[in-house]
Input
Amino acid sequence: MAHLNLTQVGTPILNLSNMTSKLEIFYQKTPLWMQNLAANVKGRLVACRRYSRDFYVALKELQSHESLTAFELEQLSISRLKSALAFALANSDFYRQRFHGFGLQHEDWFEQFVNLPLLDKMQIREASLIDGPLPGEWKVATTHTSGTTGQGLVFPCTQKQEQYTWATWWRYRIRHGLSLNERCAVFGGRSVVPLSQHKPPYWRYSNATHQVFYSMYHLNCETVIDYLEHLQREKIRWIHGYPSVLAILAGLLLDKGIKVSGVQWITTGAESLLEHQNDIISKAFGTFPIDHYGQAEGVANISMCKNRRYHIDEDYSFVELVPVMGRAGIFEIVGTNFYNNAYPLIRYRTGDLVKVGPPCDCGLAGRVVEDIDGRKEEGIRLSNGTILSRLDHIFKDMTRVLEAQIIQRSDLSIQLRIVKANDYTSEDEYKLLSEVKMRIHLPVHIKYVAKLPRSSTGKLRFVIHEEF
Ligand SMILES: [Zn+2]
Output
C-alpha cells in the first residue's frame, strides 16, 4: 500500500524519521538517558497534537456511526464526498482545471464524479493542491509516505485529518476491547536503538503515548530472550507491529520452544498480514493478530472485525473499488479523503488490490473485502541470520528517488537500484547511503537505472534475491 504509513503510514510509531538525517545520526550517538528523554519529549508532542479535545469529539462521532445501516452509511459517505468536491473546486486551481467540463455543479454530480480521471502519485509529486498559503488554524504538519516502490511523497496534513485517522483506528481497537490507556509494545521499522549497541536495552520508552518501542534491528536468536524478559517484566498485554517483524519474533521464540502467555492483543498494520504470519504469531502468543489497512495519504481505511473480516471504514473517506483490467474479481482501492483540506485527494489510486468478500454478520455495515494485496514484502538476510524487512523506511523522505529496488546477492551484498528524479543530487546519494548504513552492516552499492522491470499487474518487487 502506499503503505505505509505516518507511517506511517498506519502505525503508532515514534516518528523519529521526522528528524533530519543529521539529527537522527546525532540521536544515535547520544547516551541512553538522552535517547529515552528524546523519545519522551517526542511522545509528548505527538500526544498533544493527536489526542486533543477534538480527537475525543471525532471518536464519539465515529462510534455513533457504528449503528448505521449500510444505506445510511452510504448516504453519509456521499454527503461528505459532495463537501470534499465542493471544497476542492472552491480552493484548488489544480482540481478546477482537472475537472473542467465535467459538470460537477449539477444535480447529477455523482454520475459525473465516477467519470473523473483517476489520480496517481506521480501526478501530484510537484503539484500544489491548494491555492495560496494554508490557514494557521488548520495546524498543518508535514507527513510522508514511502510506498513499496520507494517513491517518496511529502505532503501537508491538517490536525483534523490526523485526529480522524487516529479516532478511526481507536474505534476499531476499542471494538476489540483495548482502552486508550493500555500500554503498547511497538515492533516497527524505525531505528530507535543504535546498531553499535550490542547489549540490552533494545527498547526505548515513550510514556506520554503509553508506548515502548523495540528495535527490530537487534532481534535475533541470541537476543530474543532479552526481549521476552523485558515484555514480561513490563507486564505487556498489547503488542503492535509489522506482521513480518512479529512473525520473526514469534519464530525465534518457537525455535526455543517458548509459548508466551499474558499477551491479550496483537495488532498489525502497514503490511499485508500473510497467512503463515498469522499462524506463527498466534501459535507463539496464543492470540490471533487483529489487522487493519491504511496509508499515509488517508484515502482509505479498512479494519478487521470480531469475525476477523475486513470492513471498509465508509465514514473515513470515499472508497471506490475499481475493477482491474484483465483480472476478474480483483479491484484497486481508489479513495477520496474527507478531512485533509490542506491536501485534498480525489479519486486517488493506492495501487493496492482487493477482492470483494461475502457479507459479514458482525453488525458492522461497511463493505467487506478480503485478500488485501500490495503490502507483501520480502526481507534481506543479515550476516547474523536476522531477516530484515520493512525496508521502505530507508526511502522515507527521499522525494527525489522515483523508484527503488533492493537486490541481495548470495554473498549477502546489497545493490540498490535507483531511478532518479531530475533534481536528484549527490546530497541525496549521501542521505540514502547514511539511511542504509544505519540499518544494515553489509556491503552496499547503488546502481542508477532508467527504469525498473514490473510485473504483469504493474507492481514492482521491492526486494529481490539473486544468485551470483
Ligand atoms: Zn464483520
Q: What stands out?
A: The longest strand covers residues 348-356.
